[in-house]
Each structure stands twice: as structure tokens, then as C-alpha cells.
């Protein structure tokens, strides 16, 4: 065990490495009479009473790991010798077997002879030169850390770089990695030191064992301890762990000997270390293990995987047996010693590598090995020798891997007649994002691929959750009501798991939401349907929803981001759902998972205005890897679906494409507005493009989201939408090759996407596009549920994955802003021999090590020479066969401060000298010496004749400090000098205004750089030195003249006093030279001056997202008004008729300005220029002229902005002092003028130049004055005298029917709303909700009331509203019955977001089953 190997250290409470060792051997009491025993007990009791570690000591004594002394005492605060320390570790892990020899200084017959021999044989105690153990010496803290890291097989990927103790330099080189590996267990002492040469006590040792081996199994038996937060150790045979989750490591220790150990239904997220077990077997049954490491020092061990056991990686470092029964599988196996591997039929290993030292390994059985990599001689498979190289083993027979499948042809075969479902044929091979995808998932992919061009599956979001039609034959579905058949494709969203959409609810637990969604999906799957899951994710930074675009979310959730754990928790919820989604036979049900859709738009936080293309690729990759590789989700096909249009360009569609290894389905989203004549042609163009790209990549093409946006009950401009769309698609041989088309949910009468028949709200009414949808259904091209067959029964295999490596962080073209950056790379489908990173211009390879998250990682501290500039970073992964994978990314640097050199003065004052003194009142002197103040070394300056005079000669009292050892410091990179100074308060006794400041000088120039402050001595923080009080001055001087820095030959700093009078010592410490980077000002008034992109077009293009027809943006140094650069906008007007760029501003306040100003060179085209601002959720536009070509300033008063014509929800609003407080986006568009003939075959191309876009103060009246308006007037919202409005039943567990107006009863008028339901016994689901979606402002309102009664029986009823991001608020429940109308009340003060009321309704709960009853609701009223 010469190398420290990785283990997941438990996340433990910090304990000073007082907990960095484990105390020791203790003598056991022997013999003695009862009085002696009583005396010993008394001593022990007094020894431990009240001690901080008493409970830990008692625990480990009971476990037999440690004992007391002969006199009954424990001596908890006594230091521990090396021999005693080793004894404890041996007992903990069960090491007892001695090797061939012992240490030279261990005499025969001493009590620790066998202990040290066993420790040496185990490999964790290496000793000292001369084969010495030094057993009687008290063990040091750093040596204790080293032994613990070895025996617990921990390592520190960052090495010494992560050891941040103040005395880190005192930690010996051999111990630095070990100390770093324990940083999650101990934080050192309060003063920031580790004290590596200090001693460990017995109590401290046991406290540490609590953290490193919190769960300890040293007695035979069966244990079911639920979830364990940290590590677990099994040190005795015949232990069974059952139905447990271990978040740390599991150590099957040497103490098991040749006995049995069994894991049954156990999940281990860390590493399982197998050090014991012998021929009598370590059995892993129905368990899920991340990593298994087999390394038994005392003989062979048999590892048996049974049931559904899944192991991600297994490494065998000792001779052993590995057996897999049917159903068991391992992702990757590496044999470093000869091993006998047996695979039963139905068992599988994805990749098995037989290393050079594992010759004589034997593989037998009838199982499968996807890739057998043989690097050793004399390896046999079922008795046949296998030569070195790579082969596949199928059914126990070694053969070469199967060839790759060819992509499907571009031109599709002609469609068959109605119902001509493609028939499953011979087994085919497909290339999926998940090679381990389930058989049903593989079959689904093959089916979708086969159906392309013949038919298209029609899909509907929330098809069986949301309906405007009355139920038909008990089926709630608008598709079924319309045509008597359900869609072929059923869509849901992860919002259902969060409870925001049906079948979930915010009132359910996460498990209830999961189970409800599973139930709905199982029903659709049982009918033969295909399932999809999109993901409208919450904003992990702000807590808002997916429309909340603030916070640069993706940068925070990527690996290394501060919200990464929150994102993982969200993915855990998806994985939990996916892994529970099974049919009645226990088979995982396939789902098409579609995250991060429409990413080229700017309405979601992952959109192009807020996420760079490189960030998008990496978060998509991470999502797939985490679900597939970490969480074991193997029933997902992954869909990639940006929004249309793509202008016929592959590169536009693929701009954010994460790669073939991560995507199965290529799709696009697009919605029709009912009037755009070119939309259908655009859809055909996009479908053609994507179909061809999919064919070239072996992917499925699909129309992942479409619809008629704004479809109304009647009065629609286009009543043949569905048939026109499929006619257009079918007319093109490539465009018709869409596997499916999914439309959105019928959430209400303002959100209709499938025509309804016999409206539940308007009885007898059919939506006017119903005839067209019926014709759409009858077309042979479209498939619905009844057309499906053979979707999940095909025989399909997956291609072998090729090795792939990518850099996960930092992201390509990222600006590094932290002094330390963690480089992370993912290496897939191979085990590299080494992974390294190197920088542009250097051939030095820096090692990277595998971390707990499966990344190869390394900490990196960029040098000052990179700050403010750029470099290329390359990561290389070397394979055993000599091949190298490599990726290079470009990085920019804007680190606020990089320390280049620090003078700590801890032990001496080398590197500085006195450069003299000066004061106007006469000579003074300053002598330098090393001083120790409050146990800390400092530069002592003994000042003589620092004199205060009353004639103002004392305003400049200078003590100069010259820096002498600057040979290694590039002075042109030093931008700041800082230090701490202690000046006695007594120095200001004559002048109450006495002050201090700092300066710096760069010889040969005598120009002075001044600190920004000159504080008064009396105002500074105070520090006590002996009996004197000193002021603590923290000086900082910026060297902001680059020319002087470039020509500098030295550096001098000085303390400059004013009004001081003193003779005696001053102190200086922590003098630091730093490189600094001044970030471009975050002035909210500046939209863009194009100076902050480091002359990089890549950075510029990352800041803007392109819209519409093709355009390009670059920095231009010729056309500008000031600075170095302006913007060159090259644009094309073609099929879309518009083009533009959008920049996210976050959230800035322009309410104190009044005009938007920009410098513009028009192109004389006469096209329509649109300057667009998004503020407070509304979109405002102004229209400067493009006539002429003379450059000049354009100023637009805010009063001239109007609401965009398409933003009907905000019509009439002004860019006033209220809305201008929250400006989030700026955009520039060019539109084709009315009547123009621009098209794809007749495009218009031109160029605009723009610079210095900003807002400025205007004249009076330039910005309209906004007034905070109260909400709507009080009064009755619903009296139901005319109709039921938009009321409908929501969550429904009481068989509630659609609301209807009745004249049978009312509270005031002649009618009320009636909802019939069936009461049920009290449970968490004995209720229903009836409500109405609204969009109201209730600011200023006090109460919401409603009148309710029942036709019979009793129930509880309450009012509720949903506001803001659909936040649910309910009033107090009241008992209602048939004895007259009761009043329900919801008090509104304190309810958030009353300006955005989205839904109101009533919840009815029952407590006993009974006959059907009717809820009557009337007079829903808002009051102030």
C-alpha cells in the first residue's frame, strides 16, 4: 500500500487533528481481588467523568478496540506511542497475519511484536530507514494522519495544494497528501495551524475513529441499519448487511479472515474495499455498488454477485475469484493479478481489462463481455487461449466486436396503408447514448427509426390529465373525445414531479407525486403508447421558475458551481422516478427525456441570452452522465430540441449540440401564430435539415414540439392547420421523415392545442378546428394509439462505445476569476493509464487524479502572467494501447488579485532593507530588526526622533522599506502592494488628528503611488502588544502606471505619518506583491461599449444570442466613436423577414435616466430598425431610421418607446419610472419593410456599425412617471348568473364532475355553480379542487369570500389562490352542510405576489364515504 488510494471521505464535523490519530493499545486488568476491581472502577470513573470523549471511549472499549490500564484508569489525555497506535488499527481492521520479517528495533517477546509485524505485512506501516519502527516514540500528528490515510485508503487529488494551514510548510512532504485527504475530517487548530509535530491523545484518536469508521460491525449477525452517512467497517465473519444505503466507503476488513460476508439489497456510494472473505465468499446480492476494490493480503477471496447486483467498476489487485450469476452485471473490471472469472448465462461485464500482470487469468461460463481487453499472456476463455488485443465475448465465445450500423437512407420508402406498422425483423444494432439501455428502450429507438417516412406519431402533452371536453367512456382526454383514440405519444414534464402540474400536486409529498406520474405513465404504456418527459426546471439560483432568467444559472450548477448539489438533488428526483417506472413484470418503461429545450431562445434561464454554447454542451453532457452513469437510469432516450428556425444551416442547428454520445433524438420546436404564410415552408425546411443531420449521425429525427399558438374557440384565421401541416411535410421526402410530432397541453380555453368535442364548460360546443383534426387523424400518415404495435418487442443490440474524453470545467472560452481553479475532465469507455493537463507554450504535463465524482481533476493556480490575457488549456488521456485523447479549450483571465510574493517575516527579515527616512521637522532614524509580537514574526522598525511640531513641518513623516529579492518577480505584472502595520496609539498623543498612509515607488522613477485612504490613527482597529495599545493599519497601494511598471528596476514602499510624535518600535507584516485585474465597470447605465471582450469575438458572440435570419457580429476597430472597438453587425433578410441580436442585462435600474443613446452608422437601406428593451416583463420598442449612411448619435427618449405589437398582454404600458426599474434585456433587430420581396432565393445583405450603447439623463418628460396602481376594484368576481366562466375541476379524488350552472339553488341571485361528487373516507386523498385560472391584480384587497353549501351530508371547504410562481395559499377550512350557505374567507394581507393572481378556487374535503352530493358555490367576492 505504498500509494494513497482514493476513497470517499465522510463529510464529518470538523475536529482539530486532535482527531487526526487513533490512540492506542491499552493494558487490560488481570487478576486481583474484588476490592482491587472496585478501586480500578473508581479510578476509571473519575478518569472519564465529564470528559468530552467519554461516550466515544465507552463505545470503542465495548467494541474491543481499546481498553484501560491495570489500575482501571483510561488516561484519555495521554499521548500514544507508535506501537499502541498500530495496535488500535490492527484491532479495528482485524490485521493479525505476520509477514516474513519484522522491524529491526522490535525485540522478540515484547507485547507489540506481533502488532508491528502484522502492520508491516498489511503494508500500511512502512517504518523508518534502517528497517526501524521506533515503537516507543509518541506518534506525531502528521505520522498519525499518514497511517490513517493509508489504512483507510484515502488520497488527496489536489495533493499539497489543498493543505491551507498556516504552518503547511512544516508538514513533511511524505505527509502532505495524507493531511490533505483528512481535510473533511479535521480543520486543525483555531489559529489556523496543523502542528504536524505535535502529539495525539488517546481520546482524540477515538473521536477520529468515530468519524472515519462511524458504523462498525464486529459481531456475527444480520444488520439492517437504513442509511449510513459515513463509512462502515465489517471486521468479523458471518455478517450480513441488509437493505442499507452507505453513503461513504464499506471496508470488508481482513478480520473476516476466510469467513463469509453478505450484502443483500445494499447500495454503497463510495468504494467497497474487499480485504477479507477467503474461499468462503463475499456475496453481493441484489446490491448496487459504485466501486469495488479487491486486495486481500492473506490469501485468495471469492466474490460472488447474484440477483440484480450492479457494480460500476471492480478492480482486482490480488489473486481471487469473481463469479456473476444470471442478472448480475459490472460496467468495468480491471484485473491486476490472476483471477478466475465465471459468468453465468445472463450475466454481463461491459469492459473487462486483463492487465499485463494478470497472466494465467481464466474466464469461463456462458455470460457476455462487451469488450475484453487482453494485455497479458496465457489468458483463456472457456479453455481457449485469447491473444492480446480486444475481443467481445458472447455466450462464452470470444469473437471480434460487431460492425457499426449504417445510417438510414435520406429518401424514405413509400408509406404503407393505414395501420401498416413497421414489423420487427431480424436483430439490428443501434448506436445509443446509453449502451446499457434496456431492451425495451433499444426497441423503441429502432421502432422510431424504422417508422420515419412511413408514418408520424401524434403526441399530446398531458393528454389524459387536462381536457376541455366532457369525459367519454370514462376517459379524460381531448384527443380521445375528438377522434375516439388516444395519441400515440403521451407527454409529461418534471413539473409533475415537483407538484406544479398534474398528476402531481403541491399538497402531495414528492413520493406521492412520483407515484401518481408513474401510474399515469404505466396506463399509457400499457395501451402501447410512447412516453416523453420534458423538463421545465426551477431557477436554482433565485428560487424562481424556468422563466426567471436571472442569475446566470448554468454557471452555478455545473461541476464546481455553488448550486451544483442542488442540481444533483433535482436530478436525483428524476432518477428516482425513472428507476421506479416499471411495468407489472418489473421491466423498466422507456421514456424520451427532453431537457433544456428551445435553448436558442431567451425565455428560459438556459436560453442563449444567458448561457454560452459551451456551457450548454457541458450541462447537457453532465445531465446525461449523472443519470446514466451515476444513478443507473437505463430507460431514457435523450432528445435535443432547439427552437426553429435554422436558416438551412447545419451549424445553426448544431451550435449547442453536446455530441453523438449524449443524444438519441434530434428534434425542433416551432409554433404557428395563425397568420404567418411562410411558417409551413419554414417547418419543411427545418424538418429537411434535421432529417438529413439525423441520418448522417444514426439518430431519430422528430418534431418535438409544435402547435397553433393562440387558437381560440371560434374565429381562427386558419381552420385547416393540421391537414396543411402534414400535407407540407409529406410532400418532401426528407421532411416527412419525422418520427413523431408533439403538441402542447390543453390547459384552458386560452391554451387550446387539440380541438375539443362537447365542451365540459360550454355543453354541446365543438372547437372549430375539430373537422380538420378529424381529417388529420384519418390520414394514413398519422399514427395514434390504435395504430401502434411491435414498439417494444424488437431484437436490438447496441454498438460498442468508443473512448471519449471532455473537459467539464472550466468551460471553453470561460473567463477565470478565481485564484484557484479546479480542472475536471471526464474519460468514458476506457481506463486511462494517466490523465494530464498542460498549457499553451509548455510541454510540462501536470497530473490529474480520479475524484469521488468520477472526474479526473487537479487544482490549478494561474500565474500572474496570464491575468488579463488568454491561453489554451489542453487535457490528455493516455490509454494502455498508446492512444491519446486530447481536448484543447481557450481560457480568458480576469482574476481580481493574484499573490505573486509575500514577505511573512515569520523567522527573519530577509528581502527587505531600510531605504532611509524623511520628515520636515528634522532628522529621524529607523533601524530594522526581526521581532516577535503576540507569537508572530514581524518586521520591527525602531524609530527614533519621530517628532511632532506645531508649525506643520510634520505632515510628511516617511519610513522607507526597500525590497531586495525581486529577481523572480516580474515588476511589470505587480499591480498592488499591501501590508499590515502596527503603530502605537501613543504616537498620536500630541495631535488628535494624527494619520497614516502608504506609498510606493518604482525606481528609477520617483513618482509616488498613494494608498486610497489616509485614516486617523484613533479610528483604526486596536491591537494589544504587551501593555501597549497599537493601531492596526492595513495598507494597499495600486501601481496603476503601466509604463513605469515596465521600466521599473526595483520597488520601495513606505509608511507616511502625519502628526506623529514617537520613539520606539513599529511593526510591519505580511507585505504582499499582487497582480490585479480591474474588471470592466458594472455601470447599469452602460448596455455595451464593446471594450470588455479582451478583443475576442468569441467572448462577444457569447454575450449575444442571434435571432431570425442569419447574422454575424464581430468587434470592429475602424468604425467606432471612442475606445478600441465598436460592433459590426452583418445581417441577412431572407425567409424569416427579420434578424437580430439579444443581450441579457440581468436586472438593472434605469428609472433615474430618460434616454437611450447609441452611436450608429446606418446602411441607407430603409429597412426597419428596431431597438427593443424588455423591462418588468414587458417588451418595448423604438424605431430609429436606417436612411442615409452618415454615422452619428441616436438618442431615444423613453416616452417614444411603445409596447411591441405582439406583446398583447402588456399593451398600453409605458417605459416609465416603474417599469424602468427592472430592465432585463436589450435587443437590436432589423425587419424587412412591408412589401419587400426578400426571400431565401432573393436575400438582402448589409452591415450596420454600432458603438457605445447607454442610457443617459434626459430632459423633463423624457421618461413617463409611473404610478403604483392598486389592484382591481372590489366586487363580485363570479356570480354564475350567465355561465360557469372558466371554472373546472382540478385535482380530483372524489369523482367530481365538470362544474355546471344550476338554477336549483343560489345565495342571492337566481343561479349558482354546481359540482357533483362522491364523498370518501378520510385520507390524504379524500378531496377535490374546483377553480378558475385568472390573471388579476389584487393589490390593496383584504379578503376573498365565497358562499358554499352541500345538497346533503357534511364536508370541509376552504378557499385557495395561486400567485406568482403558482404559489398555493389557502384559507381556514369551514364545515359546510345542507343547512344554508356558509361563508368561506381567505384573508389576503401577507400573501405574496397579489399583483399576479393566477388561479382561485375551492377545496372540498370529506371524512366519510357516502352517496353522491352536490357542492353549490356562489358569489365569489373580493373586498377591501
TrEMBL record:
Residue stretches in coiled coil: none
Transmembrane stretches, start-end: none
Residue ranges of domain SLH in the record: 40-103, 104-162, 163-223
Any one GO molecular function term: mannan endo-1,4-beta-mannosidase activity
GO biological process: cellulose catabolic process; substituted mannan metabolic process
UniProtKB keywords: Glycosidase, Hydrolase, Signal
SUPFAM superfamilies recorded: (Trans)glycosidases (SSF51445), Galactose-binding domain-like (SSF49785)
PANTHER family: GH26 DOMAIN-CONTAINING PROTEIN-RELATED, MANNAN ENDO-1,4-BETA-MANNOSIDASE E-RELATED
Protein name, per record: Beta-mannosidase
Organism: Paenibacillus spiritus
